[in-house]
Recover the amino acids of this structure.
């Protein structure tokens, strides 16, 4: 059981997760930001590693990735920064990013290194189920890492069942088919989709992401899932002056 | 879906059909049909593998005779086409698979099937006619909705090459398979193996395996696949499931061929370039894609994909473009079909290919600048993918080259393969052989090259030469020579060779030609490169421009700067006097006049 499993076993609603891009706004901030988020009450974190061509991301995360790359962030640098992760942060940590940087680093080496610095799970939006299952799953499993899959309103029931079977911590529900950074609109069809998922009684908990920006969208999402993830809105905050001092207020504002 | 091929009677033909591995084969023992199998020796059925069920087909035959024939031919199934009663069927059930056939029309009373339900294994629904047996005509398949029993059924009657793809849309829970007969024949009782093969591929959704072609998982050797975020999965999966059905549909083929002929102006000429031949000491042929409507090969793919999009019911088209040629081709076909068109183009490319931006706008397309990243083709592709993520249901993305997630590389290659299909026919006229010694083409993403190579891939005597853009020199830091500078990774949804840093960040390429200024190549090219089936070389800006000017002055043809890269490669090759060399003139140079003028000071 990794930290993610323990978290979901002990707490199954209103879980708040935050995404941020490593290397943004500057190098050597990753663990500081993670520590501040834990202190403010975030339940788990996704640390993004930047890629030059982030097709699933909107302008905010694209920008943070560009800046991070200019700052010299890479997987190698990130793993160096994360060597002090577990002496300062105890909540579950996921790494999130695109497949190509992982492929260049070496998938097996990546999984080993991630486990070594105390990472609990990985989210690779463009790693397909087929390739994961047939080529790479053993590296994840051998290193005790959870692989997180995304589900959208268009994902078929059959495929959701398959994802449920391959998952062992939680499933990431997208509020709609969208890139990151757009607001959640809780239309009837989105509500139907969440209800449909709930009715499927999946074995894994679910967390809603993409488009969660404030306390009201967070609360709405938590009606249908075990928790929600905030990304772009938090990354915007990191672009502001004095962002370290604003983190606590931000988190308390989301989940008073 | 199961396949039954019925009405066989010639031993060799039986063997050829069996080699296609249908699920059932049928032999008709009814003397009023030209497909009557009387006199067929039992030996002819010996060679049929046990996995194929041998079926005797009868019309009001006596039970003794049927028993006799079952024993003689070793039938595993019988199909009863007359007025046989439920009790008659019951007498055979358990010994052989019993199929009871009924002719359907609008007035068919499905109630009568109830008595048969427990006494047969399968039904077969044919078109109702006065005579017994198959009519070769189809009926309105929607009446199948009235059938509610739980006995599976074969569908028969008038299924032919032109409607076989439609059969796949039948979603009736008891639909078991298709019965193929008179529409796949050379003469009654003699099956057309080629037509059957195509139909089997459609039904089984199989890809005809070519040595250098794609496999069922979308891979070419180590390359290909569909590395896409889940948000794109439904769109890409819909395409994957439908593209072969649609491309193989006779109606689709007819419309595609008609537009290529009458709108694009195909076949494009294969021109024997005499002054080039003299200069290079070989027979040099130009495949004139520059003469296509809109001025390049890109229109072939755009026509194919717009027809596909229409069949998928899409209401909106998006595309990416670098040089603007693909954007213009897409805007053109959207105007032709009256469909909304949005083209993403890097901000930098919009400035250097301004005339094409105006052309797209005149054609009614909306051109959206890609302002992210390096603001060129790869970023335009990213923006198009982002648009598609946000518009998963009503939008089709017309990718402009043999790149992107499977099935795009294969689909675009098939649309462009018309280039080599025509070349083979045209070359015979000049040389008496369809095979040249060399085929050359430039490679951006690789669509004109793949179209030019496609029908020569399995003819290993034909040397395939792919020309990439070296920009200011392979080692200058300003280059787009992907195979020389790149290594394996994932770009725009497929595993391929791309230019990247050691951290896996995509490197911005450079070429004077916007159409070759792409950091990757299609996965099939990566496979041809790695397997050494193709030779991948590169040409600098200077060499290309000189070659472009030479082509103007020797042959009176102003080539696109992309194409000029392929022409420049001729300078570096050594030919035998009798060598036949085909070079793909992928586009005309009108769009590049500014660049030529600046370079040569005209
Ligand atoms: C005339 C011409 N040739 C070649 C290309 C390169 O594309 P591909 O490699 O897909 O044929 C382009 C692209 O814009 C083009 O316009």
């Amino acid at each position: 059981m990794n930290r993610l499993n323990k978290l979901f076993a002990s707490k199954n609603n209103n879980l708040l997760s935050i995404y941020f891009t490593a290397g943004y706004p500057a190098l050597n901030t990753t663990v500081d930001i993670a520590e501040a988020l834990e202190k403010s009450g975030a339940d788990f974190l996704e640390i993004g590693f930047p890629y030059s061509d982030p097709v699933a991301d909107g302008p905010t995360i694209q920008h943070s990735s560009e800046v991070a790359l200019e700052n010299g962030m890479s997987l190698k640098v990130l793993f160096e920064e994360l060597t002090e992760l577990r002496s300062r942060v105890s909540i579950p940590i996921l790494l999130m990013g695109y497949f190509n940087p992982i492929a260049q680093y070496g998938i097996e080496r990546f999984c080993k290194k991630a486990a070594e610095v105390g990472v609990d799970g990985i989210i690779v939006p463009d790693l397909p189920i087929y390739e994961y299952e047939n080529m790479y799953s053993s590296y994840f499993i051998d290193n005790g890492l959870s692989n997180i899959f995304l589900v959208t309103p268009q994902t078929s029931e059959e495929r959701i069942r398959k994802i449920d079977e391959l998952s062992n911590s939680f499933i990431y529900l997208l509020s709609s088919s969208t890139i990151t950074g757009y607001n959640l609109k809780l239309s009837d069809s989105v509500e139907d989709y969440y209800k449909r998922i709930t009715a499927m009684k999946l074995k894994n908990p679910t967390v809603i992401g993409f488009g969660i920006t404030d306390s009201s969208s967070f609360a709405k999402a938590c009606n249908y899932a075990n928790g929600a993830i905030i990304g772009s809105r938090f990354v915007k905050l990191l672009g502001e002056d004095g962002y370290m001092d604003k983190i606590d207020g931000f988190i308390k504002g989301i989940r008073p | 879906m199961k396949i039954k091929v019925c009405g066989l009677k010639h031993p060799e033909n039986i063997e050829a059909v069996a080699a296609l591995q249908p699920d059932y084969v049928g032999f008709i023992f009814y003397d009023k049909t030209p497909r009557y199998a009387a006199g067929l020796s039992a030996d002819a059925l010996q060679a049929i593998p046990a996995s194929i069920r041998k079926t005797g087909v009868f019309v009001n035959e006596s039970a003794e005779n049927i028993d006799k024939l079952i024993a003689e031919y070793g039938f595993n199934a019988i199909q009863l086409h007359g007025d046989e009663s439920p009790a008659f069927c019951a007498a055979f059930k358990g010994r052989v698979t019993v199929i009871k056939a009924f002719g359907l029309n609008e007035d068919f009373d499905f109630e009568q099937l109830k008595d048969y339900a427990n006494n047969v294994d399968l039904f077969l629904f044919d078109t109702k006619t006065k005579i017994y047996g198959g009519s070769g005509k189809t009926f309105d398949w929607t009446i199948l909705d009235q059938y509610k029993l739980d006995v599976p059924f074969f569908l028969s009657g008038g299924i032919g090459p032109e409607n076989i793809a439609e059969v796949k849309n039948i979603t009736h829970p008891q639909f078991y398979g298709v019965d193929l007969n008179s529409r796949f024949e050379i003469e009654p009782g003699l099956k057309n193996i080629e037509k059957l093969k195509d139909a089997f591929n459609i039904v089984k959704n199989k890809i005809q395996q070519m040595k250098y072609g794609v496999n069922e998982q979308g891979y070419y050797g180590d390359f290909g696949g569909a590395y896409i975020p889940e948000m794109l999965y439904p769109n890409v999966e819909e395409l994957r499931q439908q593209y072969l059905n649609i491309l193989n549909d006779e109606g689709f083929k007819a419309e595609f061929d008609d537009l290529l002929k009458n709108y694009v102006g195909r076949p494009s000429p294969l021109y024997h370039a005499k002054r080039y031949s003299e200069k290079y000491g070989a027979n040099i042929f130009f495949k004139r894609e520059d003469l296509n409507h809109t001025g390049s090969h890109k229109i072939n793919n755009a026509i194919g994909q717009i027809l596909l999009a229409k069949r998928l019911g899409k209401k909106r088209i998006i595309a990416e473009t670098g040089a603007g040629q693909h954007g213009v081709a897409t805007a053109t076909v959207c105007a032709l079909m009256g469909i909304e068109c949005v083209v993403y183009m890097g901000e930098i490319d919009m400035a250097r290919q301004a005339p094409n931006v105006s052309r797209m706008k005149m054609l009614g397309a909306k051109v959206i600048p890609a302002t992210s990243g390096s603001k060129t083709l790869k970023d335009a592709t990213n923006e198009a993918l982002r648009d598609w993520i946000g518009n998963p249901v009503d939008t089709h993305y017309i990718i402009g080259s043999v790149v992107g997630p499977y099935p795009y590389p294969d689909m675009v290659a098939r649309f462009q393969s018309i280039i080599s299909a025509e070349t083979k026919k045209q070359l015979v006229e000049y040389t008496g052989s369809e095979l040249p010694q060399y085929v050359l083409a430039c490679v951006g993403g690789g669509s004109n090259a793949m179209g030019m190579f496609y029908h020569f891939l399995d003819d290993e005597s034909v040397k395939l030469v792919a020309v990439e853009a070296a920009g200011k020199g392979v080692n200058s830091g300003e280059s787009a020579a992907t195979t020389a500078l790149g290594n394996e990774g994932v770009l725009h949804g497929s595993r391929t060779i791309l230019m990247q840093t050691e951290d896996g960040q995509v490197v911005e390429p450079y070429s004077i030609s916007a159409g070759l200024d792409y950091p990757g190549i299609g996965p099939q090219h990566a496979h041809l490169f790695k397997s050494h089936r193709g030779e991948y070389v590169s040409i600098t800006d200077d060499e290309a421009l000189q070659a472009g000017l030479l082509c103007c002055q020797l042959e009176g043809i102003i080539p696109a700067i992309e194409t000029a890269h392929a022409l420049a490669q001729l300078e570096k090759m050594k030919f035998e006097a009798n060598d036949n060399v085909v070079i793909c003139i992928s586009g005309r140079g009108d769009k590049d006049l500014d660049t030529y003028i600046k370079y040569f000071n005209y």
